[in-house]
């Protein structure tokens, strides 16, 4: 029957199913003593069962059957996960390979990640989201995914839902595991090994100690090792017209040159490539720039062929848990999690500008001969747009260290189930440059004495110059950053009075947290040691918060239960230690949630919830000063209004512009209202079907105007443009400012659903599970507005991502004796690609009316076979992406340096074989 109490995998099969069919048939026979447990989304301990909230449970066996090697791999397979961050974005950013979770596409900042029900230190430079790479997969017993808002219980950041990683407890014995992943094509191999040991039985011996260690290694996957990623110069056809998508760069080797003149409003700057002028063709590694216009005749560099799809990394994780009985009714516990993640990302050689003053030898040799007499007279100097290929790729190593300690007591006293703990959690990164960046004085010396020529082809330097190049490489740290979270919480629950349906229960709790986020730049980054380098912003922010909640569960009837929860939180102003002042104001918010669960008959469950939520802005969003933040993702023609104001600040032709970023002390909390309506039906012990309609509306959201908006209407957003002084050349050019404001609104709605069938046959046990998410809305206001709506539904939105209407996963598993075979189909529908203005081969010009490709639906098939050699030893062999399906063509311009495809929405590895084995002593 539907609500006959069972434990473990029985509840997994009953929960809104993430891969529930993988374990469905095995679950039917398992029974154990009923006990009260705390389920994610409620602070009241109760008998484990289907509740009023949609909690998906991923068991350890389910995790193993997915073939996932990391926590982020696992969560990315969940259909409800959209908008997450992947490790590949480390190629071209300072992410350090961080990965994060996002439920229903609302964004990583709205998904709360917990470890054993408690918060971890967030990413220093990513606000409230947690790096999933810091969670030890080998220690995970199960994962509970609450796909409904939970601010009324957990406070800020839980608007989209909660992901709670439950780690192993009371484990005895020793287990070793090992895995190896081998793609069919070159590159991207990985391996892992772990050992877990535990001794002492908490019930019999009064104590238990558990320790587990795991090591992972990932080798790099280079762009040229996959056909779809080998170039940023991509021919394609659309509606019968032949185009070239050109994402090459005007920072080249040999260098392009931009020449400026007096009275730039009248005498516009021009650009050309001296090598091409002299030889009639662009040099190796370069192609004619397809966005050239009347003012420019550049060559361009194919940087996409030199980046990585997946960076090289090593990960070590350690988890230890200790529990000891303090008499009959109390247990003291301590959990310690340690992780080190070492990632090296390699991207294209450094693009740098080199000043070529008028009258210098380089100017007289390469610039002067290519100017008309009138231009020679009016010229004020030139800048070489140079690609430092002879210095190698830009290599950045980021070492991430995580320490998470929770110590506390669980007790039963005076009828209360009590739990209290202290949390000390720290997330620290050290970013180092290990190749490709030049020492300032050494490089300038090479230019001044002409021992290096930026207008000469790559590889043509003398042996003496090659030695000078090696001696001019900078290697060292550029920044360190950390988040330090200290917290204390206490909560308790008990039965309070009787109702027709049973005993009513209440839970109350309070918590206090202090979060310090610090970033320091190295002396080398600050004192000009590195050529053309803008030092990372330094900060030292601290903010504390206090919260209290109460929850009441009312079993009104035997088949009807209602709950209500309310919470109050207060956040202090941001204490800026470097500025010696408080920034912003203290902020407080109250939230509530009501739920109902009704079972008219045993085989049917109806449930509903309504609640409010909130999220405070990140400390950096509030207190950050204006700092340099790289370049625009796209290339733009200088807007006419800015050119009229100061043409000297314009770049010739279509180019990238500098970006600056800053905070806003006036930001207030974001707010949400949300509801869910769902049902579960189990007509028999072998069939389960369920669905939940959810709806989230957010107001007062923090947003900033996108670069596309700003360059399309620079008059409206004039305050976002200001001159930026290049640290290498001293020249001033227009730059774009990204600054957050409270103005945005959004409305998301969808249906999470699943269907499971499990039957015994003469040949074995067969289970089939189909589960997915169907999105109905993904609407949000354009950044900087509260009434101009857009969406990302099945199209690449201005938020640089896609919300897929349908994401689904179908798994069929057959257990025959010691063997289990399973096949999984992963599906997401097609979408409309980002707008692009490619080069029309027929007209020999970039089109002015943007086109959008239709990216087709994408499906992959995975296989896994598990064989139980003995009760202690099992082996799993699997193949991911059996059909070796490549990512489809995408003309996006964001999310890392990869060009021509989107690694977030498709498998970049190709057909991949993996082998996992585990042995328990």
TrEMBL record:
Residues 1-29 form the signal peptide. Keywords: Cell outer membrane, Membrane, Receptor, Signal, TonB box, Transmembrane, Transmembrane beta strand, Transport. SUPFAM superfamilies: Porins. It comes from Massilia polaris. Residues 49-162 form the TonB-dependent receptor plug domain. It is found in: Cell outer membrane. The keyword GTP-binding does not apply. Coiled coil: none annotated. Pfam families: Plug, TonB_dep_Rec_b-barrel. Residues 413-882 form the TonB-dependent receptor-like beta-barrel domain. PANTHER family: PTHR47234, TONB-DEPENDENT RECEPTOR. This is TonB-dependent receptor. Belongs to the TonB-dependent receptor family. InterPro entries: Beta-barrel_TonB, Beta-barrel_TonB_sf, Plug_dom, Plug_dom_sf, TonB-dep_rcpt-like. It is a multi-pass membrane protein. One of its GO terms (cellular component) is cell outer membrane. It comes from the Bacteria. Its main location: membrane.
């Amino acid at each position: 029957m539907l609500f006959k109490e069972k434990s473990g995998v029985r509840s997994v099969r009953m929960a809104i199913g993430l891969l529930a069919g993988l374990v469905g048939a095995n679950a039917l026979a398992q029974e154990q003593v009923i006990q009260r447990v705390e389920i994610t989304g409620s602070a009241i301990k109760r008998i484990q069962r289907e509740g009023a909230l949609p909690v998906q449970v991923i068991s350890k066996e389910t995790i193993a059957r997915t073939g996932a090697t990391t926590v982020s791999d696992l969560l990315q397979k969940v259909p409800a996960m959209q908008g997450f961050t992947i490790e590949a974005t480390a190629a071209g950013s300072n992410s350090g390979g961080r990965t994060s979770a996002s439920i229903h596409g609302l964004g990583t900042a709205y998904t709360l990640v917990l470890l054993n029900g408690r918060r971890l230190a967030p990413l220093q430079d990513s606000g409230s989201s947690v790096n999933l790479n810091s969670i030890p997969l080998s220690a995970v017993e199960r994962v509970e995914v609450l796909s409904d808002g939970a601010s009324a219980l957990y406070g800020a950041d839980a608007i989209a839902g909660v992901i709670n990683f439950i780690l192993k407890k009371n484990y005895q014995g020793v287990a070793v595991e090992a895995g190896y992943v081998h793609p069919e094509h070159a590159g991207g191999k990985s391996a892992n090994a772990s050992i877990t040991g535990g001794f002492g039985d908490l019930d019999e011996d009064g104590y238990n100690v558990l320790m587990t260690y795991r090591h992972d290694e990932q080798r790099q996957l280079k762009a040229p090792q996959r056909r779809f990623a080998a170039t940023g110069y991509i021919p394609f056809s659309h509606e019968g017209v032949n185009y070239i998508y050109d994402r090459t760069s005007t920072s080249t080797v040999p260098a392009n040159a931009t020449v400026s003149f007096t009275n730039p409003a009248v005498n516009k700057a021009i650009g050309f490539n001296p090598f091409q002028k002299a030889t009639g063709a662009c040099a190796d590694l370069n192609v004619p720039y397809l966005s050239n216009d009347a003012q420019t005749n550049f060559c361009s560099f194919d940087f996409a062929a030199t980046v990585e799809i997946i960076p090289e990394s090593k990960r070590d994780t350690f988890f230890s848990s200790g529990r000891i009985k303090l008499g009959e009714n109390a247990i003291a516990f301590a959990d310690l999690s340690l992780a080190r993640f070492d990632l090296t990302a390699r991207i294209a050689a450094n693009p740098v500008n080199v000043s070529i003053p008028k009258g210098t030898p380089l100017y007289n040799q390469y610039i002067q001969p290519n100017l008309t007499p009138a231009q020679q007279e009016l010229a004020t100097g030139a800048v070489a747009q140079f690609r430092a290929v002879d210095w190698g790729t830009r290599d950045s190593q980021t070492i991430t260290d995580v320490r998470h300690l929770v110590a506390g007591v669980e007790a039963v006293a005076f009828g209360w189930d009590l739990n209290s703990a202290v949390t000390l959690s720290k997330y620290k990164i050290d970013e180092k440059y290990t190749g490709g960046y030049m020492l300032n004085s050494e490089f300038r010396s090479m230019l001044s004495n002409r021992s290096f020529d930026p207008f000469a082809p790559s590889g043509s330097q003398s042996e003496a110059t090659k030695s000078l190049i090696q001696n001019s490489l900078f290697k060292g740290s550029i920044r360190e950053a950390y988040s330090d979270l200290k917290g204390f919480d206490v909560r308790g629950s008990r039965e309070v009075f009787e109702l027709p349906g049973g005993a009513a229960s209440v839970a109350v709790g309070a918590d206090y947290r202090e979060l310090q986020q610090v970033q320091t730049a190295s002396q080398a980054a600050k004192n000009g040691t590195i050529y053309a380098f803008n030092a990372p912003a330094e900060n030292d922010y601290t903010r504390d918060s206090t919260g209290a909640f109460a929850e009441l569960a009312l079993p009104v009837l035997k088949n009807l239960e209602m709950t209500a929860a309310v919470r109050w939180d207060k956040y202090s102003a941001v204490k800026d230690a470097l500025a010696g002042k408080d920034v912003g104001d203290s902020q407080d918010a109250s939230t509530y949630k009501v739920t109902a669960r009704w079972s008219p008959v045993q085989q049917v469950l109806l449930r509903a919830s309504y609640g409010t939520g909130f999220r405070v802005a990140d400390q950096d969003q509030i207190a950050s000063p204006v700092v340099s933040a790289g370049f625009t993702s796209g290339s733009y023609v200088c807007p006419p209004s800015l050119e009229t104001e100061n043409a000297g600040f314009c770049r010739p032709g279509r180019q990238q512009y500098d970006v600056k970023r800053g905070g806003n002390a006036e930001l207030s909390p974001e707010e949400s209202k949300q509801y869910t309506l769902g049902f579960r039906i189990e007509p028999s012990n072998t069939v389960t079907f369920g669905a939940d309609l959810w709806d989230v509306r957010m107001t007062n959201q923090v947003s900033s105007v996108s670069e596309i908006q700003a360059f399309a209407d620079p008059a409206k957003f004039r305050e976002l443009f200001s001159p930026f002084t290049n640290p290498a050349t001293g020249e001033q050019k227009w730059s774009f400012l990204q600054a957050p404001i409270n103005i945005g609104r959004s409305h998301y709605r969808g249906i999470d659903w699943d269907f499971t069938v499990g039957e015994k046959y003469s040949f074995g046990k067969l289970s089939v599970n189909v589960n997915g998410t169907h999105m109905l809305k993904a609407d949000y206001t354009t950044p900087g507005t509260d009434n101009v709506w857009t969406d990302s539904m099945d199209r690449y939105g201005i938020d640089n991502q896609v919300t897929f209407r349908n994401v689904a996963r179908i798994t069929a598993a057959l257990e025959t004796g010691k063997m289990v075979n399973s096949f999984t189909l992963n599906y997401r529908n097609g979408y409309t690609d980002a707008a692009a203005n490619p080069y029309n081969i027929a007209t020999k010009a970039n089109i002015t009316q943007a086109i959008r490709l239709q990216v087709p639906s994408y499906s992959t098939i995975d296989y896994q076979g598990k064989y139980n050699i003995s009760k202690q030893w099992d082996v799993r062999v699997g193949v991911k992406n059996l059909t070796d399906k490549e990512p489809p063509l995408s003309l996006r311009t964001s999310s890392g340096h990869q060009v021509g495809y989107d690694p977030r929405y498709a498998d970049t590895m190709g057909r991949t074989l993996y082998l996992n084995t585990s042995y328990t002593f």
